[in-house]
Design brief:
Largest sheet: 7 strands, mixed
CATH topology: Rossmann fold
Shape: globular
Bound molecules: S-adenosylmethionine
Number of domains: 1
Order of helices and strands: HEEHEEHEHHEE
Number of strands: 7
Helix content: 25-40%
CATH architecture: 3-Layer(aba) Sandwich
Strand order of the largest sheet: 3-2-1-4-5-7-6
CATH class: Alpha Beta
Radius of gyration: 16 Å
Strand content: 25-35%
Distance between the termini: 40 Å
Structural class: alpha/beta
Number of helices: 5
Length: 195
């Protein structure tokens, strides 16, 4: 999906719901922050000015739009083409990692979580918003049935990923989980466990 189409398709959801979550998630960011799958930069307006932001995304058309948005906001951010499974950064080099609506799509989420753990400083914060597999078994079955088709339409997006379990089993201490839309969307705040 091209960046312009993505932004148009997401516009109603942003206006009705997501913008509040973004403000909440990103508004408290501080220090050196890595945003995974930054997309068209929809979170950019909500970052505090003093954040040192680095954003990665494998899709150049999305990054181009994120760069345009960064300039329009008069911000500075380092935006690079890279996958969450292979972020080209030193270990323990970020205070915070943020991801919104990304772990539904990454090809190898376990590897991406390992990398989040690697690049975060011990005790560093990992915050994400994600749509996930619902607990209701009928709803989850519908998600399973729709996912093969949806993956084709929406650039590999899975409707049925249990992202919270993946966070919990990959070296993070979950501090809070907020659920929205009957558990379809979660907001997670987790700390990197120190070895
Ligand atoms: C649904 S969009 C979300 C974009 C943005 N985070 C937002 O909140 O609007 C998913 C994004 O994840 C990116 N993406 C897909 N695979 C990825 C990967 N392996 N690593 C990092 N980003 C990825 C896509 O290019 C796209 O920009």
């Amino acid at each position: 999906m091209h960046a312009a189409i993505y932004d148009i398709a997401m516009w109603p959801v942003e206006k009705l719901f997501l913008h509040r979550l973004r403000r909440q998630l990103v508004g408290g960011a501080c220090g050196r922050v890595l945003e995974l799958g930054i997309g068209t930069g929809t979170n950019l307006p909500y970052y505090p000015d003093d954040v040192k932001l680095v954003g990665i995304d494998p899709d150049e058309s999305f990054l181009e739009e994120a760069r345009r948005r960064t300039a329009a906001l008069g911000r500075s951010a380092m935006l690079l083409a890279a996958h969450a499974e292979e972020p080209p950064f030193a270990e323990r080099s970020f205070d915070m990692v943020i991801a919104t609506l990304v772990f539904c799509t990454v090809a190898d989420p376990k590897q991406a979580f390992r990398e989040v753990h690697r690049v975060l400083k011990p005790g560093g914060l990992f915050k994400l918003v994600e749509h996930v597999r619902v607990r209701n078994s009928v709803g989850a079955r519908v998600q399973d049935l729709l996912t093969p088709l949806w993956k084709h339409i929406a650039n590999g997006c899975h409707l049925n990923r249990d992202t919270l379990s993946l966070v919990q089993s990959n070296g993070f201490l979950v501090e809070s989980v907020r659920e929205y839309l009957r558990g379809l969307v979660i907001e997670v705040k987790a700390h990197r466990r120190s070895e």
